[in-house]
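Page 42, continued from yesterday. The earlier attempt failed because a stray header line got pasted into the input along with the sequence. Redoing it now with the clean sequence only.
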Amino acid sequence: MSSSRKVLFVFTSVDKTLTGGNTGWYLPEAAHPYYILSPHFEIDFAAPKGPNPPVDIASTEMFKDDLKFLEDKTVQYKLAHAKKLSDIKAEDYDAVFYVGGHGPVIDLAVDPVNIKLASEFYNAGKVTSAVCHGPAALVSVVDASGKSIFEGKIATAFSDAEEQQIDKVKDIPFLVEDRIKSLGGIYEKAEKLWGPKVVVSGNLITGQNPASAHSIGEAILHALRK
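This time it went through. Structure tokens are written below.
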């Protein structure tokens, strides 16, 4: 691992949905990319409010095989010392990755610090990536000409159908698939609900759902090795 190559993982700081339900960042969507990338790059964690971003408890119950992530001493340290987004400089990193969970739709989507930071990553040609609800963090990000980074690009994210199936439509301010389409994005999804899907559109890399967490880690690794 070379200290000169760094990847920033961004987590939500939100622990409640609009209906008061528990939320946070989604366990496998952090764990799988982390273990793919950490042997090759230095990884920093960040969140709008900094240390101890909240994990979605439901994800720890559904994905018990990934609890090793929360038990990992290095990960525990990184979570406890997560940086505030306001202290982050895009120039210090080679890539940014947004972990999913419903939280990003509530905080990161409208956080001006995040929007500015993500725009700096994207416009510097750096890998700008997100999985599941993570792409919500990018819906206000624009390119150098002021256009949405989704306009005319193929992308994916948690689908409307998946949101409806888990009855969470009322828990978030907007549906991520809908928003990508409204921004001029060309939304694609897996043939079957909950199937893995990753889309690489230049330096924008998106994954659809928890099942896409491993594949997006591999896609980010491939992009950084070019």
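Notes: The longest strand covers residues 2-10.
Reminder to self: strip header lines before submitting.
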